[in-house]
Design brief:
With 243 residues, this protein is an alpha/beta fold. It has eight helices and five strands; from the N terminus they run H-H-E-H-H-E-H-E-H-H-E-H-E. The protein has a five-stranded mixed beta sheet. Helix 4 crosses helix 5. The termini are far apart.
């Protein structure tokens, strides 16, 4: 091969290598800039099955107070006696769905006291099917900003009204936006998809985050409309699907 042809081959190789490097760089940039929500929605399917259960009735539910402080809520506002029964009924519903599934259960819960106590009830009901139980800070209650410690009925209605307008992306409440909650909910599922295969993942969390998680799994739904779906009652369990 003469020197001219050799140089041409080398030049062509360098061009192809440059294109490959450019494409790889662009993909990495896209992965870095894509939200967890968009990455989750791009998956063709999920390799695990997912269940979600809202915590049982808590002391905060009874006193109608907003409890989203990540320090205080790990120590107070646990389950009432009714809340423990709520959790048991939800766990029994999940157990029925698992009867025909030869899958080990991984139980993941918010570190708040009410969700930790609910997870303990779920683990007791599922027994040997539950191979692992862990807490996940990404499952913490949505932060309700200035409404912390205030009347929950009045506060939630104001937040949800703002959700319908812009997902609380802009609000004077210092409240966590729907899209921020959606991304951390999606990240929980993405982590499970990376770590586990053919498991039954049971997620124990709070009303808003679970309803936003459910809407995040619906590809053509804006998560800001999360309240348009069925509202989760204390202790209620549902199956989650990517659709």
């Amino acid at each position: 091969m003469d020197s001219t042809r050799r140089l041409s081959v080398v030049a062509a190789f360098l061009v192809l290598a440059g294109v490959a490097i450019y494409r790889t760089t662009q993909v990495r940039k896209q992965q870095k800039t894509s939200s967890a929500r968009s990455v989750l929605r791009s998956l063709p399917s999920l390799q695990n099955v997912y269940f979600a259960i809202r915590h049982g009735e808590s002391e905060a539910n009874v006193t109608c107070v907003v409890s989203s402080d990540k320090v205080l809520a790990t120590k107070q506002h646990g389950l009432t006696s009714k809340g423990k029964e709520d959790a048991r009924r939800g766990a029994e519903d999940i157990a029925k769905h698992l009867e025909d599934m030869a899958r080990e259960v991984v139980l993941i819960h918010s570190p708040f006291l009410r969700t930790t106590q609910t997870a303990q009830v779920v683990r007791d009901v599922l027994g040997s099917k539950c191979s692992e139980m862990r807490q996940e800070v990404l499952l913490c209650e949505r932060s309700f900003g200035v409404f912390e410690g205030k009347n929950s009925h009045e506060s939630y209605n104001q937040v949800w009204a703002q959700d319908e307008i812009n997902g609380c992306k802009e609000n004077s409440f210092e409240c966590e936006s729907v899209y921020a909650v959606s991304d951390r909910a999606a990240e929980v599922i993405l982590r499970c998809e990376r770590e586990f295969k053919d498991k039954a993942i049971v997620i124990v969390s709070h009303g808003d985050i679970l309803q936003i998680m459910r809407s995040t799994l619906i590809r053509d739904m804006d998560p800001k409309h999360h309240r348009r779906g069925e509202h989760l009652n204390p202790g209620q369990a549902i199956r989650l699907h990517l659709s």
